[in-house]
Amino acid sequence: MGANQSQPRTISPEPYVSPEERAQAQAEMRAKQQAALDKRFAAQQRKPSPISTVDAPQSTSGSKKLSALEKLSKENCDEARPRCGNCVRLDIHCNWPVIQNQYSASSPQSNVSNHASPLTLEQRPVPSPDNHEPGDADLSIPDLRLLHHWMSNCYQSLRPYEISYKEDTIWRDECTEIAFEHPFLLHGYLALSAVHKAHTVPGADRQSLLLQADSHICRGLAVYRKHLEAPIIERAVPMFMTSTVLFTYNLGSAQLEKPEDPIDGIHHCFRLLAGIKIVVMPFWLQIKDTTVFSHIVDLAEGDDLESLDARGKDDTTPEILALEELTGYLLNTRDREACLTETDQLHTTSVRLRHISVRSDEYSLILSWAAQLQEHFMNLVSAHNPVACVIVVYFAALLAQSRPVWWVGNWPQWLLTACEQLLSATPELLKWIDWPRRIINSRTWSIVSTPVSFDHPNTGP
Fold first, then answer.
1. Where are the beta strands (DSSP E) in 373-446?
2. C-beta separation of 385 from 335 below 8 A
3. DSSP 174
4. Burial call 29-44: b when 16+ CB within 10 Å, e when fewer
5. 209 pLDDT exceeds 80?
C-alpha cells in the first residue's frame, strides 16, 4: 500500500489517561473551544468517525490521548441524571449510579441511591407485561407502611366476620403473592389500604394517605385497562381480584368524601361490577374451581344457592313484591319489563339473605344482584328514572340489613336521601320508600375496622 495512501483507522480501546494529562488536555480544549464552535456547522454536514477530531485541532503530542478525552467530553450527558462533582468540573460523561425517579408521598429519603447502581427501567428483567410499571420493583417507605397495614388489618376488614385460619392464609399468602406477580393488583391493594387507614386510624395523615391512594389506583388502572383489551387465561384471576378491589375502593373512598350525586356514584359502581363479568366469563370454566377464586366468590358450605332457595321456598318479602304495582307508573313497555325483572331478582336475593348462615359473606350475595343488572335498567338508573331509583333504594335497604363493613358505610342513607330529593317532584311516589326508610333509619352504624367473630377458631388449621 502506497505511503501517501491513507491508512484505515482502527478503533482500539481507549488508553489510560493520567489525571495530569487529563487536566492539561481539558485546558487545551477550553482554549480551542471557540475555534471548534466555528467549525461545528461544517462538521455536521458529514458523518464523523466515532473518535474523529475534526471539531478540534490535533495537538502535536498525545493526539490519541486527546482524541479519547475529546470523545469523553463530547458525549451528551442525560441531564435527567445527576453527575458527580468531578465530572461537572471536567465536563465529561459521568458513570455515577442512576437514581430512579420513584413515587414517594412523604419520604424524599426513600429515593436516595446507594453505591451499587440500580438497574434502569430498560435493563430490568421483564418476565411478563405486568411488570412494565416504573418503580414497581422498589416500594417507598410510605408504600411499605401501606403494605403492612394491608396485611395486618385491611384485608381482614373487608368481610363482615372474623375470617377463619384457612381464609386468613389465603389472603395473607396466596393473594399477596399474586399481587407481587401482577403489580396492577398490588397497586389496588395499596390504594385500598390507604383509604382504610385514613378512614379508621385516629390521627392518620388523611391528606397524605389520599394522595397515595390516588397515585396507586391510577397506576393500577392504567395497566388494568390495557389488559382488558387483551385478556389471557394467566391473568384472569388477578384481573378478577383487581375488579373487586376497584369496586370496594369506589365505595370505600366515598366514605372520606361524600359523592355529589349518590345515584350517579352507585351507578358507577354497578358499571364496575358489570366489568367483572367481562373479566371472568371468557375463562369461567378454567378459573371457577381455583382456590383463590372460589374463596372470593363462594358462600360457606351449605349456603349454595340451591340450599338457600330450598330453605326459603315458603318465604317472601311482601314489600318488594309490591313494587310490581310501582312499575305500572312506567308507560314504556321496555322500561317496565326491565324494572319488573330486577324487582323479581331483588326479591329472591332478599329471601336468600334471611336464610344465609353467619359464616357466609352476605355482601357477596347482595352484590350478585347488582352484578347481573340488565343494561337497560342501568341506563334507567343513570337517567334518574324515579321507579328505577326506588328499586335501588330497596337494594340499599338490604345493605342496611347486613352486618356493617366500613366500605359500605353511609351508602344506604345517602341513596335514601338522594331518592327522597328526586321524588319531591313526584310526591305520589314517596310512599314507596317508606319500607326502606324504616330499615335504613333504624340502622345503628359504627366504623368497623375488625369484624365481629363467630364460632369458628381464628387460629390453627
1. none
2. yes
3. I
4. beeeeeebeeeeeeee
5. yes
Give dist(CA 242, CA 237) in Å, integer: 9
pLDDT tens, position by position, 294-353: 777 778 888 889 999 999 999 999 999 999 999 988 889 999 999 999 999 999 999 999
Grid coordinates given for 172? 395473607
Cα–Cα dist 415/389, whole Å? 9
Considering only residues 293 and 333, tell me which one the structure prediction assigns the higher pLDDT. Answer: 333
Range with the largest mean pLDDT of 28-37, 66-75, 293-302, 385-394: 385-394
Rounded Cα–Cα distance for residues 139 and 98 (Å): 17
Q: At 292, which helix (H) or strand (E)?
A: helix 291-297
Q: What is the pTM of this model?
A: 0.68
Q: Give the residue extent of every domain in the chain.
A: 19-90, 140-291, 296-441
pLDDT of residue 278: 81
Q: How many CA atoms lie within 13 A of 415 on its CB side?
A: 32
The region that residue 35 occupies, defined by phi over 0 for left and psi between -120 and 50 for alpha, beta otherwise, is alpha
Q: 129: Cβ–Cβ under 8 A, 6 or more apart, which residues? A: 226, 227
d(CA 151, CA 173): 9
